[in-house]
């Protein structure tokens, strides 16, 4: 895991903290009610095995902008919370596979050169090992003929074992797992070797990007945020990014542009109305991204409907395919949420990413970058950012302190992240 | 919680670490097998709500000597593991009362002057509060007419609310709990107000000292240790204190002395045979203690059968009653396990105490004392000791390090403590 940073709490540099302060106050005051509500929700709709949620804190609202059900980045978590992860893994495995689950195979992404990603797989493997399970890394790399050992920058080693199949059971070499843990978002499609297995696969294949749509996720999120907001008697917009979606786009052929323009325009007006209501003196913007697939190529920012028209050939090419090279035919147009958390000097932007195992929050980290504008997407191609582990694990609210004190701000992050997790749980339940 | 000590790991100062090293090696090597076994055990026999287990590390064996099902001392745990406790409490409450449990009343011991104990109740209350439950302290103090606020040495306040009953529901003032959490060992007897409640009471009343017997617990422990030892192919004596018991003793009338003498003598011979087998060059001793009730008055050390005969009137008086003033009529005679962990200078003795919530180990502390001999009982009347929070939470074994490295030694402590917890789980299942 990452080295523990000295001062891992960015500052909120905005005067527009009226509604946020109110939100944080309500969340701390009604903590018992919130946890009670979550307990019932998880009982009805169990959480996926794990998730990371990217949040944006605009000072006047806090909202999730991406929910990753095959999280990487375990190497960025605070090592102080290792035991918390171990305990949460024990619980999540028992819930997924029952008490007789002893052997787990992790199926990671197939790229072998991203040592940074593989370091995360290594940390995940070690956590599962420490939690008391036998664990192997089973690779989907097509031409892998035998075990491959990769030396990581940390000096640790990771052994990838090719997956094979015998009837309806998958195995990694001689190792026959009781549970298959996917850490591969299936952007490249559904691997036949994992279909129709007798062993449980978690999260289920259908939560991969070969079938999942962001617009469906944010549809469920809207529902969840609405119920939560009603319970706390707050405006759901304070925790929910508005969105619209367009199907059947062809960026290269400029097909579907009219639909995008209409939706971008309508969404910008909707945001402006909320900005007016709360006296927010900023320019609304939207993020347009592929409805399927991880962040990557197909992400753009628009401040007006014209921005969609004015795409040059290079930009259209960039929007036309995902990073896996698949054609983008559907997009989601999401309210852009300003990042008003800064780190060190005022030009350094910080975005919180919260991690959950089962329904337990186990910490997170900040993505920090000092070159981009507050409205841009920090998780974009070619960009570099630092990661700063949270000093707090997000589950230790302290009513003796002010609602925006560190343990309470992180608790709020944990609550909003769990709302996104609950949306994913409903996606899973309705597969 | 306690301030985090700088170097909280006592040293093992003994040459007799052959069998221990072997035990620690086996435990680290077979960690996955051990955890698999525990998972099945907890599935069959759920753990009590919480427990603390006093261990003794003799260098050649590690064994539990007391299992407390109504633990105090939460204020001595390492604050770094607060989140681990919170997560474990969420799970333990759900297992005890189901997902709709929102309101919890803690029923503590009735002494109001032991501010040290009340500090533990305060920490337990805060942990439950942070875990997202409404919590009150419901007092059994007979003459308490309304809420009483007690200011603790930490500056925190604790409000005791008198318990009342309406038909089969108990309440603390207007607060009607969904779950009653006992933190009272019932040495003073079964309180009628808690009998036959419609609300679940955890741990169950029958696990209090008004009915429980140490000899029954250690009988189950013997069974558990035997099964565990067989699975790991080790001698169960390395983790199990031998014991015998005597019923119907009257120390004042010198009745039952013959039975005690016979058992003390037989037990000392049994220990000597094991010492011979392992080449332990120490003098065997036994601990005689009340079979019911917490540690207190009725505890003595004997190195020979004659020690029982030679009790003077003062010693007999001390042995005749528990600290609650109840007559001792049954005793357990347990193999004395030397304490070979020392702290700082070689005359300072350290005994580990491990804490569990549900079946999750959440840390512990060392009782440290620099005046007593290695064969005496550190938890004895009038004695003073320091408490040093564990630096490790006992669930993060590290196979890259030697079997006796800190995370691994603490992991071993957590394993042995869980064996005692499993014995308590079997007691509970067979009530």
Task: Describe the structure in your own words.
- With 431 residues, chain A is an alpha+beta fold.
- Chain A has two domains: 11-72 and 212-429, no CATH class; 79-207, 3-Layer(aba) Sandwich (Rossmann fold).
- Helix content of chain A is 32%, strand content 23%.
- Chain A has nine helices and 18 strands.
- Chain A has helices at residues 18-29, 31-44, 82-97, 115-130, 214-232, 257-278, 305-309, 313-320, 406-429; strands spanning 11-12, 50-57, 62-68, 103-108, 134-139, 148-151, 157-166, 169-172, 179-183, 201-202, 243-246, 286-290, 299-302, 331-335, 341-342, 349-357, 360-369, 386-389.
- In chain A, strands 4, 5, 6, 7, 8, 9 and 10 form a seven-stranded mixed β-sheet that branches.
- In chain A, helix 2 (31-44) runs parallel beside helix 9 and helix 5 (214-232) packs across helix 9.
- The longest helix of chain A has 24 residues, at 406-429.
- The radius of gyration of chain A is 21 Å and the shape is globular.
- The relative contact order of chain A is 0.19.
- The A-B interface holds A 31-32, 34-36, 38-40, 42-43, 80-84, 86-88, 90-91, 94, 99-100, 102, 129-134, 360, 393, 395-399 and B 31-32, 34-36, 38-40, 42-43, 80-84, 86-88, 90-91, 94, 99-100, 102, 129-134, 360, 393, 395-399.
Largest interface: A-B, 37 and 37 residues
The count of strands of chain A amounts to 18
Radius of gyration of chain A: 21 Å
Ends distance of chain A: 34 Å
Sheet with most strands of chain A:
7 strands, mixed
Number of domains of chain A: 2
Q: What is the 3D form of chain A?
A: globular
Helix content estimate of chain A: 25-40%
The SSE order of chain A reads EHHEEHEHEEEEEEHEHEEHHEEEEEH
Number of helices of chain A: 9
Mean pLDDT of chain A: 89
Assembly type of the shown chains? Answer: homodimer
């Amino acid at each position: 895991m990452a080295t523990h940073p000295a001062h891992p709490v960015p500052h909120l540099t905005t005067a527009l903290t009226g509604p946020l302060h109110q939100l944080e106050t309500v969340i701390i005051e009604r903590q018992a009610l919130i946890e009670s509500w979550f307990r019932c929700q998880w009982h009805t709709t169990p959480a996926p095995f794990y998730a990371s949620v990217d949040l944006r804190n605009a000072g006047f609202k806090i909202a999730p902008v991406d929910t990753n059900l095959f999280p990487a980045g375990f190497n960025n978590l605070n090592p102080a919370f290792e035991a918390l992860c171990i305990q949460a893994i024990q619980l999540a495995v028992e819930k997924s596979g029952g008490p007789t689950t002893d052997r787990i195979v992790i199926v990671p992404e197939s790229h072998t050169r991203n040592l940074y990603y593989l370091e995360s797989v290594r940390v995940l493997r070690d956590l599962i090992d420490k939690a008391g399970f036998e664990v192997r890394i089973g690779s989907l790399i097509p031409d892998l003929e035998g075990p491959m050992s990769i030396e990581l920058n940390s000096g640790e080693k990771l052994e990838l074992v090719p997956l094979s199949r015998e009837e309806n059971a998958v195995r990694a070499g001689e190792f026959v797992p009781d549970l298959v843990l996917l850490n591969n978002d299936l952007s490249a499609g559904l691997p036949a070797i994992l279909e129709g297995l007798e062993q449980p696969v978690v999260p289920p294949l259908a939560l991969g990007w070969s079938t999942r749509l962001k617009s469906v996720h944010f549809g469920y999120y809207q529902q969840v945020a609405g119920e939560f907001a009603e319970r706390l008697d707050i405006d759901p917009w304070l925790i929910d990014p508005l969105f619209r979606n367009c199907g059947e786009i062809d960026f290269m052929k400029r097909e579907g542009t009219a639909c995008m323009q209409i939706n971008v325009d309508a969404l910008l007006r909707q945001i402006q109305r909320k900005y007016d209501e709360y006296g927010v003196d900023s320019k609304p913007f939207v993020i347009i991204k592929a409805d399927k697939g991880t962040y990557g190529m197909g992400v753009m920012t628009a401040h007006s409907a014209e921005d969609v028209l004015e795409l040059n050939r290079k930009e259209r090419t960039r929007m036309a395919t995902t990073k896996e090279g698949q054609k983008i035919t559907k997009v989601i147009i999401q309210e852009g949420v300003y990042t008003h958390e800064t780190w060190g000097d005022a030009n350094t932007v910080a975005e919180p990413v919260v991690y959950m195992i089962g329904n337990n929050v186990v910490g997170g980290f900040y993505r920090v970058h000092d070159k981009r504008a507050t409205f841009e997407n920090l998780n974009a191609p070619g960009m570099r950012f630092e990661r700063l582990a949270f000093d707090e694990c997000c589950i230790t609210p302290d009513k003796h302190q002010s609602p925006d004190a560190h343990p309470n701000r992180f608790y709020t992050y944990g609550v909003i992240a769990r709302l996104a997790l609950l949306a994913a749980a409903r996606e899973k339940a309705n597969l």
